[in-house]
Amino acid sequence: MKVSTNQLKIEFIRYEVEEKDKKPPAQNKFVFLLNRDVLTMVAGPIIIYPYHAALIDKYCRDNRIPSAWIHKPDLVEIFDPLVQVKGGGHLDIYPERQVINIYGHSTAYGPFSSDYMKRFITEHPFFALFSVRVRL
């Protein structure tokens, strides 16, 4: 069943460095996950999540979604047919300059959808705080 991009709810999850008083790193990876009628953008620092699959693994564990490593460290398969990975890329966040740069793709999961990215940039409050540059 195909759902229109406009009918999807959106959610942004940003995994952080867990050390208190530590400035979040600027360089992050992200993936889009479509879970039934919710489009989730999951992001985390490259120093903790060097592969997009690590973000997917954490999201699945946190949400009790059946999944397994197919080829560690770069490929996790999700076994719930209603949860799909919809590409990924890089997300560099510079709060002091109020700039976000979005670019690249996931080698394992493919490029991100420009339609999905447009939804987040225009509708999610986190992105409203920044000047966002997207390179496809």
Short description:
This protein is of the alpha/beta class. It contains 3 helices and 8 strands.
Extract low-pLDDT stretches: none
Structural category = alpha/beta
**Order of adjacent strands in the largest pleated sheet:** 1-3-2-6-7-8
Overall pLDDT level:
93
What is the H/E string? EEEHEEEEHHE
Q: Give the distance, in angstroms, between the N- and C-terminal Cα atoms.
A: 27 Å
Named CATH architecture: 3-Layer(bba) Sandwich
Give the full name of the CATH homologous superfamily: Janus/Ocnus
How many domains? The number is: 1
How large, in whole angstroms, is the Cα Rg?
Answer: 14 Å
Number of helices: 3
User: Would you count the extended β strands for me?
Assistant: 8
Brief descriptors of the model:
136 residues; alpha/beta; Pyruvoyl-Dependent Histidine Decarboxylase, Chain B; 6-stranded mixed β-sheet; two-stranded antiparallel ribbon; 3 helices; 8 strands; globular
Detailed description of the structure:
The protein is α/β, with parallel strands linked by helices and 136 residues long. It has one domain (5-134): Pyruvoyl-Dependent Histidine Decarboxylase, Chain B, CATH 3.50.20.20. The strands form two sheets. Strands 1-3-2-6-7-8 form a six-stranded mixed sheet. Helix content is 18%, strand content 39%. The protein has three helices and eight strands, in the order βββαββββααβ. The longest helix is centred in the middle third of the chain and has 11 residues, at 52-62. The chain is globular.
